[in-house]
Amino acid sequence: MAAVVNGNPSSGDWQDRYYDVDQILDRPGPRTAHSFMAGDGVKDFLRNQCKILVIGAGGLGCEILSNLALTGFKDIHVIDMDTIDISNLNRQFLFRQKDVGQPKAIVAAEYIMKRVPGMKVTPYYGKIQDKDDDYYMQFNLVICGLDSVEARRWINATLVNLVDPDIPESLKPLIDGGTEGFKGQARVILPTATSCYECSLDMLNKPTAFPICTIANTPRLPEHCIEWASVLEWPRVQGDKKMDTDDPEHINWLYTVASARAKEFKIEGVTWSLTQGVVKNIIPAIASTNAIIAASCCNEAFKIATTSAAYLNNYFMLIGTEGVYSYTFEHERREDCPVCGGESLDITVSRDWTVDRLIEMLVEKQDIQIKKPSLSTPTKQIYFQAPPQLEEATRPNLEKKVSDLVPDGGEVTVTASSLPFSLSLRITYS
Amino acid sequence: MIKIWSMKKNEEAAAKKKPKTSAAQIRVQKDLTELDLPSTMTTTFPDPADLLNFTLTITPDEGTYIHRMYEGGSFKFSFAINTNYPHDPPRVKCLQTIYHPNVDLEGNVCLNILREDWKPVLNLNSVMVGLQYLFLEPNADDPLNKEAAEELRRSRDQFLYNVKQSMRGGQVKGQQYDKVLVQ
Ligand SMILES: [Zn+2]
């Protein structure tokens, strides 16, 4: 029977629920930060105040949610745009056969709340892009367990943009987990302070692509036949019809075409699921890799939320393909990172200034020394130095007033070959 | 909760705040406005407000005599850039049916940096220069048009003759090609 402990009767806690976790939180240790408030302070923050967002309720997400719930996070939001597929059930253990077809976020939230008393898990079935800055502002921490580079780039850029130097809470630590088969990584990103996701974009393993001439002429692998069907035959036969890799009819078509090709070249191994795997670029997910990476992410979330130990600085890599190898290093911020690097400048100009005058000012400015700048707002081009057609198309803007093109407080992106990447201007009018 | 603010390395970093312009968008702006193309290549934007879809026209006329096999032609390629650029390479297709060992009749192009060797550090300029190179130095070892590749290997003179024939809009081995000659 549940008993009241920890001075927190409303949470439905039972005796000794947090016995083990409290060993860490009740007293400072050699690795705790100066600001560590051993005892009730830190426990109150973790259990009653801290609000955490989990992005993704798939292989990593299910593990992350259960780990967080069991370490004492109570207020969790979860976003996922997918529904449950039967093939998820071998590793996404918050889901059962009866849940197939239901939204992952909703089923996962309900499962956690049913299983762990006192939890408040708020699901959102949809895209991360549906939510605005105010939504992301409400969280103390964000953990990502995503399989999409695009979604990660989006949340990374959003959290970097959210940082307002006047509001300390606007800096949301982002813990990013990712797995590919037996490999995985966990990293801690403090937006604008440490290397961000975009900084390390060129470190990513790119999906295996086969030379197009191999696919066309000398197929040796079943994958070559599938790529032949999807890259060359689909556009040739289907014309402008867009291939939808989630449409079983489309996969069927590719499978049939690839199988015929394989037969012609006496290649074995083209199957329906391999076809789907190749065109969707699915790398087999391994439950144990997910478990290790999710544990690492949640460990970091716990340390950051409680200051009970030094957190990861800043990149942890797991390679389980040959033995179990792991490596931790500090990934450096890139000065020329298009998201967190580059310079930002607040400038005040007169409402009468033309674009031409603004460009002149940028070129003359001693401290930045820009040659031939090109300017745009997030929605339109202002002036492009090249290519010729765009220069001509934007030339009339030179005579226009900046205030007619950019709202007060609006952002202008400046690129020039003399800049490492770009310069962002925030324009206010005098 | 950790006090990150006080641990920020310097105050300058704190002042940095970026606009809502996406990284892909800035990167495309940078790539396009810093294109350094020879006079043999021009870009055309059907909709100048849309930076992600445009056409590249190559009129090869550079190089020594042996490299001038495609001289006098005007070759058009469509470029389609997605929002995950530069993680994903641009999608490039030849808009004409041309006789070339590395371009098939559907317009697919065999250029390593468009697929297996693409890296985010490469840019649109690298791709365009790579495409032009295909006209100066067609590669018989990576064939997409097998007949053209075999011809190039077998008899350079016959290959050159076929190229001229195809560029005039004629047939080569029963296959009709688009007229790409400019006067
Ligand atoms: Zn960065």
Automatic annotation (TrEMBL), chain A:
Pathway membership: Protein modification; protein neddylation
Active site per UniProt: 213 (glycyl thioester intermediate)
Recorded GO MF terms: ATP binding; NEDD8 activating enzyme activity
EC number: 6.2.1.64
CC per GO annotation: cytoplasm; nucleus
Keyword presence, Metal-binding: no
BP GO terms, sorted: protein neddylation
A Pfam family that the UniProt record links to this protein: ThiF
Enzyme class: ligase
Domain E2 binding: 347-430
Domain of life: Eukaryota
Catalysis performed (reactions): ATP + [NEDD8 protein] + [E1 NEDD8-activating enzyme]-L-cysteine = AMP + diphosphate + [E1 NEDD8-activating enzyme]-S-[NEDD8 protein]-yl-L-cysteine
Keywords noted in UniProt: ATP-binding, Ligase, Nucleotide-binding, Ubl conjugation pathway
Primary role: Catalytic subunit of the dimeric E1 enzyme, which activates NEDD8.
Family: Belongs to the ubiquitin-activating E1 family. UBA3 subfamily.
Protein name per UniProt: NEDD8-activating enzyme E1 catalytic subunit
UniProt organism field: Hericium alpestre
Lineage: Eukaryota, Fungi, Dikarya, Basidiomycota, Agaricomycotina
From TrEMBL, chain B:
Record's keyword terms, sorted: ATP-binding, Nucleotide-binding, Transferase, Ubl conjugation pathway
Signal peptide: none
Active site: residue positions: 110 (glycyl thioester intermediate)
The organism of origin for this protein: Hericium alpestre
PROSITE patterns: UBC_1 (PS00183), UBC_2 (PS50127)
Domain of life from the UniProt record: Eukaryota
Similarity-based family: Belongs to the ubiquitin-conjugating enzyme family.
Enzymatic class: transferase
Protein name listed in UniProt: NEDD8-conjugating enzyme UBC12
